[in-house]
Design goal:
binds adenosine-5'-triphosphate, 12 helices, globular, about 15% strand, Rossmann fold, seven-stranded mixed sheet, binds magnesium ion
Length: about 260
Amino acid sequence: MAIVAVANQKGGVGKTTTVVNLAAYLGALGARVLVVDCDAQANSTSFFGIEAATGLYEVLTRDVDADATIRATETQGVHLIAATPALAGADIELLMRGGDPNAVLRDALAPIRQQYSYILLDCPPSLGVMTVNALVAADAVLVPVQCEYLALEGLARFMATLDRVRVQSNPGLRLFGLVMTMFDARTVLSHQVTEEVRRHYPSLTFQTVIPRNVRLSEAPSFGRPILAYDPYSRGAEAYRSLAVEVAERAPALVS
Ligand SMILES: Nc1ncnc2c1ncn2[C@@H]1O[C@H](COP(=O)(O)OP(=O)(O)OP(=O)(O)O)[C@@H](O)[C@H]1O
Ligand SMILES: [Mg+2]
């Protein structure tokens, strides 16, 4: 149904943590979710405890059907197209093949999109060919914003990129929402940044704020989403509530 790119050119802001945990809670709500790991770091692949020999790289560069690379995860309702280290070379191969290098992912996902309620694209921390492919394939973008100094400046640059993608390739691309991450209630800065982002993007900022929570950073080393690792932690509650908000807003994306 909806293809959502989780993107922000800034590194370490919680993109992968958001993809994996949102996918898990959407799955728990009964949705069919496909996570596509678009990052050669393969973090969302390993956050699900999966080690893959093949995956998105073969889809993008070897014309392998996306369907053939989908694997189940141990998380209810969640499937994965994995990233492998080879994906680091996909950018250059995409640029050298014929046709539009930015629309390869969109075309690859077209035959399978109807099988899923959500396809979540975990983007790398850059605005390279891989991220642009994700933005061209997506119906909407969900942007994790870390509660830190200069968050708004980074966001403004990212918004300009979205505008360029709309003009050149994907006029229907919507901004699904901004989710504040790593909120630390004890710091003035966290409160200030959250208020500032809400002031600029009042209706677009999700009500749910993701707290800085050590359980969220521990879960990946056990290869499980927070829902399986510590479902009563504050981080788990936050991602559960984000999933509810996402499910409420999602129908508007495809209307
Ligand atoms: N809410 C949180 N509380 C505590 N730690 C967090 C939280 N969100 C993410 N982290 C940790 O911060 C680090 C960066 O998070 P994550 O990998 O999700 O960011 P990313 O934006 O995907 O990074 P990259 O740009 O490298 O892909 C990870 O070690 C993760 O476990
Ligand atoms: Mg990541």
